[in-house]
Design brief:
The protein is mainly beta. It has one helix and eight strands, in the order αββββββββ. A hairpin with a 2-residue loop joins strand 4 (99-114) and strand 5 (117-132). It is elongated.
Length: 199
């Protein structure tokens, strides 16, 4: 767990560094029109993952939990995104097998806005870690990546709802055979526009 914590700090540090660089660049160009200021969004939601049960077994159970997200967007609708998610399930396969998955991902997003509706596509990479009462499911920080998209519906200058965000989630957790998992992650929630929406 200590090793995961150190690696997590490195990943988050890189993200903060990128955001900080973008913020300083925006500050240096403060004379440019205000429409080109960085927009900061914070999102939270309910997350469901269709997960793999084990080696050579189809994805057969769901994990439930939540996720939080920070997105910094420039005037060209390109965002730097940090996403932290946690899901878990108990009594998997009707036996005493519990599993929890923590992911920390960072990457890029492009958003297309039309009126109150925004659609986006994104790709993120980072770390995944499981905790379980089965030794085979235990892991240190391992590679994880997610590719997908979603849509937001703006309700006001400050708030949007996110009816759907769907991603392919790939993790490399030890499972006694191939040590990787192909999963489907689905999230729905709300978005808070910290400094207001662009339009």
């Amino acid at each position: 767990m200590k090793r995961f914590g150190k690696t997590l700090l490195i990943v988050l540090g890189l993200g903060v560094g990128v955001v900080g660089y973008g913020s300083s660049t925006a500050h240096a160009q403060a004379s440019v029109a205000s429409s080109q200021m960085l927009r900061v969004d914070v999102a939270g939601g309910f997350t469901v993952i269709r997960a793999n049960e084990g080696p050579a077994v189809c994805g057969c159970f769901y994990m439930n939990g939540g996720s939080g997200e920070l997105a910094v967007t420039n005037s060209h609708n390109i965002s730097f995104v940090t996403n932290v998610g946690y899901t878990s399930q108990t009594n998997i396969g009707n036996i005493d097998r519990n599993l929890a998955l923590l992911t920390v991902l960072e990457g890029g997003r492009y958003t297309f806005e039309r009126g109150r509706l925004s659609t986006f596509g994104q790709g993120m990479v980072g770390l995944g870690k499981t905790t379980s009462n089965y030794k085979i499911d235990q892991s240190s920080a391992r590679l994880a990546l997610a590719v997908g998209g979603g849509l937001d519906l703006r309700l006001s200058n400050r708030f949007s709802i996110r009816p759907a965000e769907v991603e392919y989630l790939f993790t490399t957790i030890p499972n006694g055979q191939n040590n990787f998992q192909n999963q489907l992650r689905m999230t729905a929630g709300v978005v808070f526009h910290v400094n207001g929406s662009r339009r």
